[in-house]
Automatic annotation (TrEMBL):
<keyword id="KW-0808">Transferase</keyword>
<dbReference type="Pfam" id="PF00224">
    <property type="entry name" value="PK"/>
</dbReference>
<dbReference type="Pfam" id="PF02887">
    <property type="entry name" value="PK_C"/>
</dbReference>
<keyword id="KW-0479">Metal-binding</keyword>
<comment type="pathway">
    <text>Carbohydrate degradation; glycolysis; pyruvate from D-glyceraldehyde 3-phosphate: step 5/5.</text>
</comment>
<dbReference type="InterPro" id="IPR015806">
    <property type="entry name" value="Pyrv_Knase_insert_dom_sf"/>
</dbReference>
<dbReference type="InterPro" id="IPR001697">
    <property type="entry name" value="Pyr_Knase"/>
</dbReference>
<dbReference type="InterPro" id="IPR011037">
    <property type="entry name" value="Pyrv_Knase-like_insert_dom_sf"/>
</dbReference>
<dbReference type="InterPro" id="IPR015813">
    <property type="entry name" value="Pyrv/PenolPyrv_kinase-like_dom"/>
</dbReference>
<dbReference type="InterPro" id="IPR036918">
    <property type="entry name" value="Pyrv_Knase_C_sf"/>
</dbReference>
<dbReference type="GO" id="GO:0030955">
    <property type="term" value="F:potassium ion binding"/>
</dbReference>
<dbReference type="InterPro" id="IPR040442">
    <property type="entry name" value="Pyrv_kinase-like_dom_sf"/>
</dbReference>
<comment type="similarity">
    <text>Belongs to the pyruvate kinase family.</text>
</comment>
<keyword id="KW-0418">Kinase</keyword>
<feature type="domain" description="Pyruvate kinase barrel">
    <location>
        <begin position="70"/>
        <end position="398"/>
    </location>
</feature>
<keyword id="KW-0547">Nucleotide-binding</keyword>
<dbReference type="GO" id="GO:0016301">
    <property type="term" value="F:kinase activity"/>
</dbReference>
Length: 570
């Protein structure tokens, strides 16, 4: 609590701001706002015609109540099982905050149609929804076999070379000279997601000779992994470049780069985004996510350097579990989450979270425990892949994931874990960090129902979310792109709200309280909201005010304030 009052005093002394005040609260009625002045729509940019009506009625969204207050976010991959407008809407109502487009499959026109449907759902419910474009990345594969496959035995020799002749039980083409030229004696090759393992015993300009350590059948175009080496290849294949250029025209909010090996891969991706975006606005708004699935990427010091260059991280446990020992993956997952919390970057845990629900309407108990572990560890979001893209029970899978989230977040041990993890977050010597640190303390001290943050680019919101406040964060931003990208961040729910630098502070406060009340965070006139902003408004990175405001207002609002439980107004 002392931190909050110290920051408030500092603001008064330095900035002349006297906003850190909890005004007297009158015992009045309970409910929502109705105003004679025009208030901002949730999606003012997209839907100006509904601006008046949207603020005068309380939200009554379908779905269970916990869908709209959970802190941990949900990503779901769209595919054949979830490509209709009705299914996308159902998944959103079940809990999905971010839809993933897997560019390993499907045509561009199919992706464009999916984005169109997502935006229709977004427009219908006046809630920002993020779209993540997941690039395939460099897939390394063997060539073909004369008989489509060959059975290999333990201890036999097997050669990989550049010859395009069909393979047999002794050799096969590996059409990747970059691998041939990089592998050394003693290195490991994994084929078919690790089902076969070979050790290099000899190398040449156009071949590598191996000994089979784990036997099995190798068949046409199976994938190859090289866990022990960093390959000198671009993270963006020609297909990735075409896919990314197209995704940027769709206005996706996040781009995920697969098989990141080193920090330079992120730099290359960002350079491509800048050079190929349809406008500077697009390149500034799109967020970059690194998928960590290579041993080189999670080793020191690369891990911290990669996270520092990204806007977010995905723990891609599929290929990570192929290239590393399975027992190492949970440890690496915790290390990645810890480093992301330390740097204040959102982190997604993905792959096989509810794998059994591809074919079953109920999960295994181990899968529920897996989801819970990621949440307890402090992940911002959890993701579904084939479960929602190709499974028989996509809605049930999303619902089950949300149920686990809600149950864990209601546990006192979860809240204690988030509090303990605050030790990971070292405040930067900035006004933004001082404000967000103080705001978290104020929320706890006065038992505020929500933390409202005015933001342009989302920086203050990210810092606040990383401190895991005990109340939901309502991000108020003039930028629809910011609102969408924040959909992936722990505890954040966004609304688009236009604020001009010359707006009166109390008028803007009224708008914020109106939106918070309509969103269901403030249910009684005595409910408190903690509000942070940068004054003058619309100045990025200028957070310098904290205000504690009851739903009734710092004084009686000059507008009419109505509450639905009694249908009376004050």
């Amino acid at each position: 609590m002392m931190v909050a009052w110290v920051v408030a005093a500092w603001l008064v002394a330095i900035k002349g701001v006297t906003s850190f005040v909890a005004p007297p609260v009158a015992p009045v009625l309970s409910g929502v706002v109705a105003s004679s002045r025009r208030l901002p729509s949730v999606f003012e940019v997209a839907n100006p015609e509904v601006a008046e009506a949207s603020i005068k009625v309380p939200d009554s969204l379908p779905g269970t109540p916990e869908r709209w207050v959970k802190a941990t976010k949900q990503l779901a991959t769209l595919g054949p099982a979830s490509s209709t407008l009705e299914m996308i809407e159902a998944l959103f109502l079940a809990g999905v905050d971010v839809f993933r487009l897997n560019f390993s499959h499907g045509k561009h026109e199919e992706k464009a149609e999916l984005v169109k449907k997502i935006r229709e759902v977004e427009d219908k419910y006046k809630r920002p929804i993020a779209v993540l474009a997941d690039l395939q990345g460099p897939k390394l594969r063997v060539g073909v076999f004369e008989k489509d496959s060959a059975k290999l035995t333990k201890g036999q020799k097997f050669r990989f070379d550049l010859d395009d002749e069909p393979g047999d039980a002794d050799r096969v083409q590996l059409p990747h000279p970059e691998i041939i030229g990089t592998l050394r004696v003693g290195d490991t090759l994994l084929v078919d997601d690790g089902k076969l393992r070979m050790t290099v015993i000899a190398t040449g300009d156009e071949f590598v000779e191996t000994t089979v350590e784990v036997a099995g059948t190798i068949s046409n175009r199976k994938g190859v992994n090289t866990p022990s080496v960093v390959l000198p290849i671009s993270p963006l294949t020609e297909k990735d470049r075409k896919d990314l250029a197209f995704a940027l025209t769709l206005g996706v909010d996040w781009v995920a780069l697969s098989f990141v090996q080193r920090p330079q891969d992120i730099v290359e991706l960002r350079d491509f985004v800048v050079a190929n975006s349809p406008s500077s606005e697009v390149s500034e708004n799109v967020k970059v996510m690194a998928k960590l699935e290579k041993p080189a990427a999670v080793a020191d010091p690369s891990l911290a350097e990669i996270i520092a260059l990204c806007d977010g991280i995905m723990v891609a446990r599929g290929d990570l579990g192929v290239e590393m020992a399975p027992e190492d993956v949970p440890i690496i997952q915790k290390r990645i989450i810890t480093e992301c919390r330390t740097q204040g970057k959102p982190v997604v845990v993905a792959t096989q979270m509810l794998e059994s629900m591809i074919d079953s309407p109920t999960p295994t108990r181990a899968e529920c425990s897996d989801i819970a572990t990621a949440i307890y560890d402090g992940a911002d979001a959890v993701m579904l892949s084939a479960e929602s893209a190709a499974g028989s029970y996509p809605i049930e899978a999303v619902t089950m994931q949300r149920r686990v989230i809600s149950r864990v977040e209601a546990d006192a041990l979860y809240r204690q874990a988030q509090t303990n993890n605050l030790a990971l977050v070292t405040p930067e010597k900035t006004a933004t960090d001082a404000i967000t640190l103080a705001a978290r303390q104020v929320v706890d001290t006065v038992s505020a129902k929500c933390l409202c943050i005015f933001t342009t680019r989302g920086t203050t919101v990210l810092r606040a979310a990383n401190r895991r406040p005990t109340a939901p964060i309502l991000a108020l931003t003039p930028q629809i792109a910011t609102a969408r990208s924040l959909s992936l961040v722990w505890g954040v729910y966004s609304r688009v709200m236009q604020v001009d630098s010359e707006d009166e502070f109390d008028d803007v406060l009224f708008d914020a309280i109106a939106i918070a009340t309509n969103a269901g965070y403030l249910k009684q006139p005595t409910d408190l909201a903690v509000i942070t902003a940068g004054v003058p408004f619309s100045t990025p990175g200028a957070a310098n005010v904290i205000r504690v405001v009851p739903a009734l207002g710092p004084r009686e609002w000059p507008e009419v304030l109505c509450f639905p439980e009694t249908e009376e107004c004050v």
